[in-house]
Design brief:
The chain has 256 residues and is α+β, with helices and mostly antiparallel strands. Helices cover 48% and strands 19% of the residues.
Length: 256
């Protein structure tokens, strides 16, 4: 508990986030140890982006998201295998939300009461510009690392983050995209691969135009208020309006 309090004070994050981060890394470690049972599954989402590629500007992310090659039946089967592989938590039943299957790993928090880690599996035709990497996933908060997690390349992962941004425009997506785009190389191939994987017919240029429109129209005050608690104090945007404008300019500069 004392260690968690020190880490929470150091990063200016809620104590429950630090506690949850320890559990999340433990769950991921167990999944990595059993990955041969799951087949072609690739780590994605905000946790992957922050804990693999954004180490210096990492924000807290509380879920584990994966794409699985194949149809819905296979994704549901993988959910069951993952749930069976996790010890130390009580796993919920599998439910379907849209096209994604998910379950929760509930644990008793040292703060009292219970909390949970959510795991999402999306059935996809996994199409990438670059081959997924066997990544080291590292937490800036718990100081834990998990090696050998199949993860999208930076550009392929950012392309999928931009897809999330274009569909929902949450503050976490804005922050992640703004932090990661300067690290990327050429994005055209990754955007093309993402659109094919998602079954979308527009060109990368058409997609980027839509994303820019969503960014410009988003409620930036709401986005900032909801997202600031997940970002260490030293990394919080001084102006979310400036971040919004900067991100729109970054998107405009993408050679799509």
């Amino acid at each position: 508990m004392d260690v968690c309090r020190v880490l929470a004070a150091k990063h200016a994050l809620p104590l429950q986030f630090i506690v949850k981060d320890f559990c999340l890394m433990d769950v991921l470690s167990q999944l990595a140890a059993n990955q041969a049972e799951f087949g072609n599954v690739v780590f994605k989402g905000g946790t992957a982006l922050n804990k693999v590629y954004l180490l210096g500007s990492q924000r807290f992310s509380e879920d584990l998201d994966f794409d699985s090659e194949g149809d819905s039946r296979r994704a549901k089967s993988i959910c069951g295998k993952m749930a069976d592989a996790i010890a130390g938590c009580k796993t919920s039943g599998i439910r379907k939300v849209g096209s994604t299957y998910q379950f929760e790993c509930a644990y008793q928090s040292i703060l009292g009461g219970s909390d949970h880690i959510r795991i999402d599996i999306a059935p996809k035709k996994i199409i990438t510009d670059k081959k997924p990497v066997m990544a080291q996933v590292s937490s800036a908060y718990s100081q834990k690392s998990v090696a050998g997690v199949p993860t999208y390349s930076l550009e392929d992962l950012v392309a999928r983050k931009l897809c999330a941004l274009e569909s929902r425009t949450e503050g976490k997506d804005l922050y992640d995209a703004h932090s990661s785009l300067p690290l990327c190389g050429k994005m055209h191939g990754a955007l093309s691969a993402m659109l094919r994987s998602e079954g979308r017919e527009e060109t990368p240029a058409e997609f980027i135009k839509k994303a820019i429109g969503k960014v410009r129209r988003c409620d930036i005050k709401k986005a900032g208020n909801l997202t600031n608690p997940f970002i260490p104090f030293q990394n919080r945007p001084k102006s979310w309006l400036a971040l919004k404008s900067s991100l729109a300019m970054m998107l405009e500069e993408i050679d799509a």
